[in-house]
Design a protein that fits this description.
This protein has 12 helices and 11 strands. With about 375 residues, the protein is α/β, with parallel strands linked by helices.
């Protein structure tokens, strides 16, 4: 064997031994993850149990793993401009990140159009819910928030192209546009026509920012005021508007970079929040959801009179809550895509909202 070969073999053996040496010596390095601590009380366990736990957890817990992962991410993302997690995140132009999970890119490319039977199912379900609510003098509003790629397709890579001209959301809107049992609000056109006001979505987050949220809120309130003319609507002039840095970016976090990639964003905060309190919703929370403190909650606003609202929602509605709670005497929020009719009927509310992200509209089939 040539001397160069011996050298390469030696370097390779040294490199792969570093994590083991670090674990055995207990050497500490500056990192966020406690990668040596597999279980509480690990140091006091018998040697046989330590070895068993060490082998079981080595792949995900070995010493220095975080730094190797960061190096891998930086090499692919910053040098090769390739997503290190393509099944979750797509790297677009000018530093924009796009969600690929939940079939989001298939949605953009219109790969999987709705079948007529699926549209029939959604129409039947929403019509029945609206009819049952109307018997209790409740009005249903269905709100769809478009995905980021629908509003900012210009930042997608050139190789991501549509294979059909009509999206599933457009199919659904066409099917439901003549329904009078409930109000169907697709926010796509509203947001597309508002892009000149500033960015409406975060570059490194899958959700809309405060400006996009506020524009969507205004559109929803405009629709609701046709049925409830005295509804209180927050105006931008009454809000606190300022620039801030956002680091809690879900797509950046998926790529393992929650700190280093922050972005400036415009915050919009309603005033007069002192009279709003959070109370128990009275919702029975499923066991799988009990660790989520925001699965179900209620806000009571003593500063306004008028209708109450019951909202069934997903993560997009989180930024809408500060505005909705200003508009209703009581507002209840439940993190689910199903309208729980038994609960809704026992509530003294006049407005029921079913909000859903574009990528999840297939969940409306029943």
């Amino acid at each position: 064997m040539k001397l160069s070969s011996y050298f390469l073999v030696s370097v390779f053996l040294i490199l792969i031994s570093i994590p083991l040496v670090g674990d055995l010596t207990g050497l500490t390095i500056d990192q966020k993850l406690n990668e040596n601590k597999f279980v509480k009380g690990y140091d006091s366990l018998p040697l046989s149990q330590k070895v068993a736990l060490y082998l079981k957890n080595y792949d995900s817990k070995f010493w220095g793993r975080e730094y190797l992962v960061k190096a891998y991410i930086k090499l692919k993302k910053d040098f090769f401009k390739i997503s290190p997690l393509p099944e979750k995140v797509l790297i677009g132009k000018s530093g924009w990140l796009f969600l690929t999970d939940y079939g989001a890119m298939d949605d953009y490319r219109n790969v999987r159009p709705f079948l007529n039977t699926q549209l029939d199912s959604i129409e039947t379900y929403l019509t029945k819910v609206a009819h049952d609510l109307r018997e209790k003098q409740m009005r249903l509003y269905v709100i769809v928030v478009p995905d980021k790629h629908t509003i900012y397709p210009e930042y997608l890579p050139e190789n991501v192209r549509k294979i059909r001209s009509t999206s599933r959301l457009q199919q659904l809107e066409e099917r439901l546009k003549s329904k009078f049992d409930f109000e169907f609000i697709n926010l796509t056109d509203t947001l597309l026509s508002s892009k000149q006001q500033g960015y409406l979505y975060y570059k490194q987050e899958s959700h809309w920012n405060d400006l996009g949220t506020f524009i969507g809120y205004q559109k929803v309130m405009k629709s609701m005021k046709k049925d409830f003319p005295k509804l209180n609507v927050v105006e931008l002039a009454t809000c606190k508007v300022y620039l801030s840095a956002e680091s809690d970016l879900d797509l950046a976090k998926l790529l393992g970079e929650p700190i280093e990639y922050t972005e400036s964003t415009q915050r919009i905060e309603p005033a007069n929040g002192d009279q709003i309190i959070r109370v128990e919703s009275g919702v029975t929370i499923p066991p799988a959801k009990r660790l989520n403190p925001n699965y179900a909650f209620r806000k009571v606003n003593s500063g306004v009179t008028g209708p109450s609202v019951l909202v069934y929602r997903d993560s997009f509605f989180g930024s809408l809550v500060p505005f909705f709670e200003q508009s209703f005497a009581e507002s209840t929020y439940i993190w689910t895509n199903d309208v729980e009719l038994a609960y809704a009927k026992q509530e003294s509310t006049q407005v029921v909202v079913l909000q859903i992200a574009e990528r999840h509209i297939d969940l409306l089939t029943h």
